[in-house]
Specification:
Layout: H1 4-79
Length: 80
């Protein structure tokens, strides 16, 4: 027959295992939530940087058009 010490050890092991499982699940949930927050922050930063790049590219296009206009004006003025 199984002694009382063995039964107590089995019960203790079961509760210890259950504690580890619950703790791991809680940590996983917490880490997952934190990762989602970090991912959202990165997405926001990427979106902001994309806006800045688009604005910069727009400025480059305008400067290129201004340079072309200056060349045309200079050509017209040189022709007079």
């Amino acid at each position: 027959m199984i002694s009382d010490n063995i039964i107590v050890a089995i019960i203790t092991g079961i509760f210890a295992f259950a504690g580890v499982v619950v703790s791991n699940l809680a940590n996983h949930h917490r880490n997952n939530t934190q990762q989602q927050v970090r991912d959202q922050q990165l997405e926001d930063e990427i979106h902001e940087l994309s806006k800045r790049v688009d604005a910069h590219n727009g400025m480059q296009d305008r400067i290129a058009n201004i340079e072309k206009s200056i060349v045309r004006i200079e050509t017209i003025l040189e022709g007079k």
